[in-house]
Write a structure and sequence with these properties.
The complex is a heterodimer of chains A (287) and B (125).
Chain A lengths: L2 H16 L1 H14 L7 H20 L5 H17 L3 H22 L2 H43 L4 E4 L2 E7 L4 H18 L3 E8 L5 H16 L3 E5 L3 H10 L7 E2 L3 H11 L2 E5 L5 E5 L3
Parallel strand pairs in A: 2-3, 3-4, 4-5
Antiparallel strand pairs in A: 1-2, 6-7
Chain B lengths: L5 E4 L2 E5 L6 H18 L3 E5 L8 H16 L3 E5 L3 H9 L8 E3 L2 H14 L6
Parallel strand pairs in B: 2-3, 3-4, 4-5
Antiparallel strand pairs in B: 1-2
Helix pairs in contact in B: 1-2
Chain lengths: 287, 125
């Protein structure tokens, strides 16, 4: 580091100390005006003051930025959750340059200007770090949501004694099918159900991969001694399946869940009849 | 070498596998079982694999072989109590155990045997 840069750096540190109040005020103004979102002015002012202190401390002590980075990461995380854009988040950091520049210009000494270049580089680094933390925070949110979706989307419901159903809603991928398969098979064991209905009314599209997953599930259930019926096949999907040349073999498929229920009831020996007084009479035929 | 016990219940033979199967014990089981089927005139064999946690293609083939042997001797084989993880593994291995009947548990296995017997008039005597 040359003597000039050292002098410049010292000058910037002095300026930061002397004009703390003014620079902070200007910084807050820039930060607030940079976003269209509603911001908590008091909270932001506190945050900026903390950042400012931490920045000055890091200049004082051998340039250790870990504290400052911690604060910035926190700021980015908060902003990512509150739905700010990455630009809005980064501009908060870059705003300090503008705020300080006005002071530097007034000072006008070559040392201050030289120091400003150095200062500017530090702030650029910190700004990039902010954007990175922002992206990491957003990614984490997305992963969390995907996991929650996975948990939400796989209920196994009991339709009748010995008959369970899995209403599938949304796109099927390998991960989801795995979860569905495991949950369905476990439920078959737990409830001792011999019949299962997989309803794909809510599945927007069936390609060879999805069909493969469905077939695997059915075969696995068969290995355990339970029969699976696939229901809710819409006309377009039937068309697609035939066009793709997917063979469902001897697996029973039905158009609606009602048909599938009727089929499984018959298979498990339950007879549904229309009665006079009572609307439904059920008689179980011993196998 | 551990031997798998074969239990007789009425005219059904029950094999409950509770050990890690080695090649030798499987071969011994196949021999023992075919002898017992002939000796007792059993009409059904139930293989209970509730306790089996790990399967490979060897065990898959073993089950199919036992089923084929028993069928030759006019006894229906039913595999009961397969765990979900085992079923998934077998499917991933591409084994669907064609020709082997399955049931969720021992009770349902026995019910299935009775049902099969009722459906086939030749089995009455």
């Amino acid at each position: 580091m040359s003597v000039h840069t050292d002098a410049g750096r010292r000058r910037i540190e002095e300026l930061l100390q002397e004009h703390e109040g003014r620079v902070l005020k200007r910084w807050l103004e820039i930060a607030v005006s940079s976003t269209s979102n509603q911001v908590d002015r008091g909270g932001l002012a506190d945050q900026l003051r903390e950042l400012y202190q931490s920045l000055r401390q890091s200049f004082g002590s051998s340039g250790d930025l870990s504290d400052l980075r911690g604060l910035l990461a926190e700021l980015s995380r908060d902003r990512a959750r509150q739905g700010f854009t990455p630009t809005e988040t980064a501009v908060v950091v870059f705003g300090l340059k503008e705020a300080l520049y006005e002071t530097v210009e007034e000072d006008g000494s070559p040392d201050a200007l030289r120091g400003f270049i150095w200062f500017s580089r530090v702030i650029d680094d910190l700004g990039l770090f902010t954007v990175e933390s922002y992206a990491t925070a957003r990614e984490k949110i997305i992963i969390d949501q995907a996991e929650q979706l996975l948990e939400l989307s796989t209920p196994v419901v009991k339709l009748w004694d010995g008959i369970v159903a899995v209403p599938l809603v949304g796109t099927l991928d390998s991960a989801r099918t795995q979860v569905v398969m495991e949950k369905l098979l476990q439920t078959l064991v737990d409830t001792g159900s011999e019949h299962a209905v997989i309803d794909i009314t809510g599945v927007p599209a069936v390609d060879t991969e999805v069909a493969q997953h469905l077939l695997k599930t059915v075969v696995a259930a068969r290995l355990m001694g339970a029969e699976c019926v696939i229901s809710g096949i819409r006309p377009q999907i039937a068309h697609t399946i035939v066009t793709l040349g997917i063979e469902f073999g001897d697996i029973v498929t039905k158009a609606t869940l009602a048909d599938a229920l009727a089929h499984t009831l018959r298979a498990s020996g339950v007879r549904v009849v229309k009665g006079g007084e009572s609307r439904i009479a059920v008689r179980t035929v011993e196998a | 070498m551990e031997r798998v016990p074969i239990l007789k219940l009425g005219d059904i033979l029950i094999v409950s596998i509770q050990i890690d199967l080695q090649d030798m014990s499987v071969l011994a089981l196949q021999e023992d079982l075919s002898e017992r089927v002939v000796a007792t005139g059993a009409r059904g064999v139930i293989i209970d694999i509730t306790a089996v946690e790990i399967v490979d293609s060897f065990i898959g083939r073993m089950l199919a072989t036992i089923a084929a042997i028993s069928r030759m001797l006019d006894a229906e084989t039913i595999v009961v109590g397969m765990r979900p993880a085992v079923a998934i593994t077998l499917v991933e291995l591409g084994l669907s155990l064609g020709g082997v009947r399955t049931a969720l548990n021992l009770e349902k296995g026995v019910a299935l045997l009775n049902q099969i017997e009722n459906q086939t008039p030749t089995a009455t005597w």
